[in-house]
Amino acid sequence: MGLSPKRKVIPRNAVRKAWQSNPHWIEAYGFSEYSLEAVFDDSDDVRICWCCGDQGYQEVAHIIPHSLGGAHAVENLFLLCAECHLASPDCYKSQYFVDYVNRNAGRSSRLMAEAFTRASGRLLEFLQQHPELSAAIADKQPSLITEDCLYRRTTTHGSSISLSTRLARAEMYVDELIEYAREHNLASTMSSDGCSGVTSGGG
What we know:
By secondary structure, the protein is mainly alpha-helical. It has two domains: 12-105, no CATH class; 108-197. Strands 1-2 form a two-stranded antiparallel ribbon. The protein is 59% helix and 4% strand. It has nine helices and two strands; from the N terminus they run αααββαααααα. The protein is elongated, with a radius of gyration of 25 Å. The chain has helices at residues 12-21, 24-29, 33-41, 82-87, 94-103, 107-129, 134-143, 147-152, 163-202, and strands spanning 59-62, 77-80.
């Protein structure tokens, strides 16, 4: 038995251009206003997931799987991040895919905002409990903890950085600040104690 011919790959930019040129597809399928905005805000530099709103990586997903009769054509393709692509339903009707996308519309943006709010709250609470460490944190924050540092302490699972890893980076950032402040305070205390010992010993 011969092998089935391979489907021609349709690139992301072709899918994006087609949907941006045919916004009525979004309404016809029943996608939410968020998806409409995501499609038109998208570009090859940004690569927005048209479902959750995560940025930086896209995969071409079939709305109706090809194996269930879905056309391998741009109007049956949607650009998703790896996590949404994996989680989205593979059913013979488009409504289940659409329902999933609408339920999770903007999820990444909401979760990132919640993560930053939670991390900021932790940092504020720490500073209220230890106001003497605010100067140390102010010195550390802009220069010594960089995005590159956080990237080196996390990794990918598969081909892209997961949303949960991005969320963890906000907590990691605050943990790094608090740890630095405590170590800085301990070093300052030991230095002060050492100076006091030298002074008293010299008397």
